[in-house]
Amino acid sequence: MAIKLSEIVKKTDHLAGGHRLCPGCGASIAVRQILLAAPENSHIVVSGATSCLAVSTAIYPYNAWRVSFIHSAFENAAATISGAETAYRALKKQGKINKDTYFVVFAGDGGTYDIGFQALSGMLERGHRALYVCYNNEAYMNTGIQRSGATQLGTWTTTSPHGEKSSGKAENRKDLTAIAAAHNIPYVAQAGIHNWRDTFTKAQKAFQTDGATLINILAPCQRGWRYPMEKTIEITKLATETCIWPLYEVEDGIWRLTQKIRNKKPIREYLELQGRFSHLFKPENEGVIDQLQAFIDKQYERLLERCGEK
User: How much of the chain exceeds pLDDT 70, in percent?
Assistant: First the structure.
């Protein structure tokens, strides 16, 4: 069924304006795109891990959420939603609840790749009917731009600084989307806020799926990535065009690219727009760009094989 933007924009946003997220923040865009895909007039319960998103949208006594919102800790957002979903199923079985309710987690990469991974893995393994959304800005932005398991090789952060003895983060990122798929859950997807149609379609599938689902969505942070706030969408689009962040889904174990790249761009075009990578363009660090390009190429080739595109 064709997705009509004219119909989507008539729906009520589940995240109100007036929150305290930075201009150009990708997190609020990700939240709005995904929640707009929820079935009309449905009840939604959100568990928000401690993050920029949580502390900027739900500062007592103010709240920007038009859904039920639970502020969870870094490490237990998935456990919180697991408990809420289990209670809902029990009450519905007893006839005490009859309305359809959808359960969603919104957490950053720090609360997903690292601190909250154990609770996330448990949620996926047990198969709770809940959508886990990692809004991925590749660092712990809320606590001062520290590196996370999602941070790219060579990135400057406050805990992976560059200097005479360092050229930024020394390790490649973790592949969380593939790790989630390895849990054999019915639906996993990687998305980007620049492609709203793709994100909306994936969120629709996740809401309609009977079981645990995960969407890992790239949501840049202009403060931590060091770029002008109006370039958020441009940079996210470049991440896909350079294949540093390809868009795909894994549905019932079947891998599929959802945006095919005909003319793959070099990652230099992506890196040079961001201050967090500016040190890599100094002569002494040029080799790091080559290392990162080789890693991205290898990962993308592996993805093409999994998707049957080779």
Answer: 99
Residue by residue, DSSP assigns 114-180 as ITTHHHHHHHHHHT-S-EEEEEE-SSBTTTTSB--TTPPTT--BTTB-EETTEES--SPPP-HHHHH
The residues that bridge with 141 in the sheet, in sequence order, are none
Backbone angles phi, psi at 167, to 5 degrees: -115, 30
What per-residue confidence (pLDDT) applies to 111?
Answer: 97
pLDDT tens, position by position, 165-205: 999 999 999 999 999 999 999 999 999 999 999 999 999 99
Instruction: Write down the CATH superfamily of domain 5-306.
Output: Thiamin diphosphate (ThDP)-binding fold, Pyr/PP domains (3.40.50.970)
The Cβ-side half-sphere exposure at 274, using a 13 Å CA radius, reads 26
SS3 of residue 269 by DSSP:
helix
For all residues of the chain together, what is the average pLDDT?
96
pLDDT band at 309 (very low <50, low <70, confident <90, very high): very high
* Residues counted in the chain: 310
In this structure, the strands spanning 162-163 and 166-167 are: antiparallel
Cα angle value 62/68/74 (rounded, 5°)? 80
